[in-house]
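hiii so my PI (J.) wants the whole complex modelled not just the main chain, which honestly fair. so below is everything: two entries, each one labled with what it is. i double checked the lines twice but i was tired so who knows lol
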Amino acid sequence: MPAVDIAAPAPLPNLAELLKSRKVVKILAIGSSSTLGIGATSGIQSYPAQLSLILEAALKGVDVEILNRGVAGEIAESTAERIRSEVALSKPDLVLWQLGTNDALAHVPLDELEETVKSTVEWLRENKVDVVLVGLQYTSRFAKDQNYFAVRDLLQKIAADENILYIRRYDAMQFIAKTRANLDMMSRDNFHLNDLGYHCMAEHVAHAVIVSLYLRRLRPKAP
Amino acid sequence: MRALNEIDFWRGFALITIYINHIPGIYFERFTYRSLSLSDSAELFVFLAGWSMRLSIEGKGAPLPPGRLVLRLGGRAVTLYIAQLLITEIAIAMLAASSLLLDAPFLLDWHNASAVFRAPVEANIGLVMLTHQLGYFNILPLYVVLMALAPLIALIDRYAKPLLLPASLALYIFTLARGINLQTWPVEGVWFLNPMAWQLIYVLGFLCAAKEGIGAFARKHRFWLKLAALPVVLFGAWAAWTHFSPSPIDVPEPKLFFMFDKTFLSPARLTHVLALMTLFAGTYKVITPWLPYSARFLCMLGRNSLNVFCVGSVLSLAGQIFRIAIEGGIASDAFLVIFGLSFMGLAAWLSEWRDRLRETPASQASASLPASS
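here's the output for the full assembly
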């Protein structure tokens, strides 16, 4: 599927800048069960673990260190609290924040969710830490759930407002589910991803990060 | 049953606030005081727990002999530990049952429960060792550790009083300077409420309850302390309102001293909760004549805080599941608050009724049953 359907590129200014001089990148992958890797056969199949391998292969000579801080079943407000602690303690260069699914399930009011995400994203920006939002997964169970759609759309709107990278996981997974029906990316509970699903997720995130990193370099200069 | 008092009143208040704050997304959460505060009800609850610990060992009579003191506080720690195991097991069963009834397997992962169902061998060991905690079920494990330390705290206070605050402060400073915390297992991580940092507020509660020392100083200089507390409380309200939080890049090392961190109870949060309590100390006497029934209700909850806390924890999880099953609106959220508070009140009332039955000789008790029921 077209890359732009997975994530519209957005600048990662701090990461791009430090890659010019440094060869070690520290990434904080934080969120809920999709970050922890529920549904995968082992921890090394979680998306952050696979992402570090893909990024290291793509960014030759760069050492990618990923901290996995997924807590299953957590809503964004709790994760936001942990982000501030983790950023202070481990000083990452990039935060991958997977969110939305549990807030949709818990029916957290949209204005509260927006406030939580925006204030955290802005706090990260003020602290020169780039952030990527990784959206909610597609599952046939919630294919007609209006609240689920509303959270998905809200995250996309926040990312556009804040000009940050947003991985449209829902759209990517829905596209694959509709066009490659024989490719089963979900675990038996039809809610979490399986190993293949996490592999695809890691590839999507890696692809979006790399495209965004070289965005300025590749974009044709205005005449 | 003890007389109405300020500590029970504020404990009751903290219990209600914890119940509402533990149903994320509930409409009425915005009206709890953490919307305008750096600290929240967890800090208040632990400070008052330290205060109550002194009340439980210092009655009107002669001081308890050391052996009895250790037994009483140690026994209380065991009670808290059993309570934590019980409510966690009930929570796990609730998640399992609702995942079946609602055909919603994702509930098995709710609030860090996944390991119980997906790695039961390790998780069951972790539950008993308190290294595996469900989200929102992490205040009692802290309280268990603090109560297990309570005999030591009480003995230092009795035999080497000047050492208690410096020792507690030194542990707090060391913990924040090094960023050390207890590990969780089998899910890799750390305790959400770090006992090595939070012990300080518990000790401060214990010391403030004393008739001499810090407690006497605070009561003697109440006016000036209130004056000093006001700007701290106003700053907390401003910080919460504007979502201000210090930048970890700009603050010097060790950064935890300058952040607003809940896990490590950073000094800003600690100072804020102390200021909040200083400012509101004594308002109980003003509130009670205006709202006598509410004050009696809050005191009743506070007098039975462990039972009410346990019931409140289980009810808040029930509330979360309810909001997942039936999309929450203001009306259903109001129902959750009214239902939860009523049930917590019922738990407190039943606890006291049982205590009264115990105190009454059997023959009188059976005679009084019809009137009570």
